[in-house]
């Protein structure tokens, strides 16, 4: 029989001592052997009972109680009264940073504006997929114009009931407090003359308030630019106060809000308030938490306190 070459002989010796099961291990044998710990049947039963009690407590934590659900609902309702984050109202070109003399701020301004617009589109697209909400709202501008006229007309007349159907909670409370504090001998009349330009949607987004795809709790908000000519007439003891009633051109950014709740049809548009145009201060402070509607009412609303 021919002898094996050196490599073949070494391989033969290794294979002749190979284990019958498993693979060859290069680890050195363990010199410490741990003795198995024997447990009695009663101890096993005790540990099983303890495990079952722990699992039961975890189930209770995972299942929300009635008070937890109430608190969660209350938190959702409070969030629904806020202005959605990153609401951006683009000003005209004349009030943006100059591309020639303030190039850095202009680039930053446009970048934030485009990014927020893209986020708004994504939020509406997800609402379309998850909740079958229309991507476009053809009723948005007509609703904004009608609510704008009805709101100021009702406020001038002191019609609190009408305002409760037109306004959101915070704005309604602001108007209601002003009506209550209005002297009995003071009257207001609001006159609408017409629109100076076509109303435009400046912002339109959806905020998901639920826990995922199947949860329909959401809020839809839109900002509509309304350029109108209007007049505010003030009377005291039935006589018109001199200097009031002059037609004034007013540009307002009306914020509309619409709620969607689980198992309930979508609510109507209501007026959240008004917001100013976005500027560099807002660009620098991008991402700050929203404020309540009663503290951001601007535009012609301040005239009613006179």
UniProtKB/TrEMBL annotation:
<feature type="domain" description="Tim44-like">
    <location>
        <begin position="122"/>
        <end position="276"/>
    </location>
</feature>
<dbReference type="InterPro" id="IPR032710">
    <property type="entry name" value="NTF2-like_dom_sf"/>
</dbReference>
<feature type="region of interest" description="Disordered">
    <location>
        <begin position="282"/>
        <end position="306"/>
    </location>
</feature>
<dbReference type="Pfam" id="PF07961">
    <property type="entry name" value="MBA1"/>
</dbReference>
<dbReference type="GO" id="GO:0005840">
    <property type="term" value="C:ribosome"/>
</dbReference>
<dbReference type="GO" id="GO:1990904">
    <property type="term" value="C:ribonucleoprotein complex"/>
</dbReference>
<dbReference type="InterPro" id="IPR007379">
    <property type="entry name" value="Tim44-like_dom"/>
</dbReference>
<dbReference type="GO" id="GO:0005743">
    <property type="term" value="C:mitochondrial inner membrane"/>
</dbReference>
<keyword id="KW-0496">Mitochondrion</keyword>
<dbReference type="GO" id="GO:0032979">
    <property type="term" value="P:protein insertion into mitochondrial inner membrane from matrix"/>
</dbReference>
<dbReference type="InterPro" id="IPR024621">
    <property type="entry name" value="Mba1"/>
</dbReference>
<keyword id="KW-0689">Ribosomal protein</keyword>
<dbReference type="InterPro" id="IPR051975">
    <property type="entry name" value="mtLSU_mL45"/>
</dbReference>
<protein>
    <recommendedName>
        <fullName>Large ribosomal subunit protein mL45</fullName>
    </recommendedName>
</protein>
<keyword id="KW-0687">Ribonucleoprotein</keyword>
<comment type="similarity">
    <text>Belongs to the mitochondrion-specific ribosomal protein mL45 family.</text>
</comment>
<keyword id="KW-0809">Transit peptide</keyword>
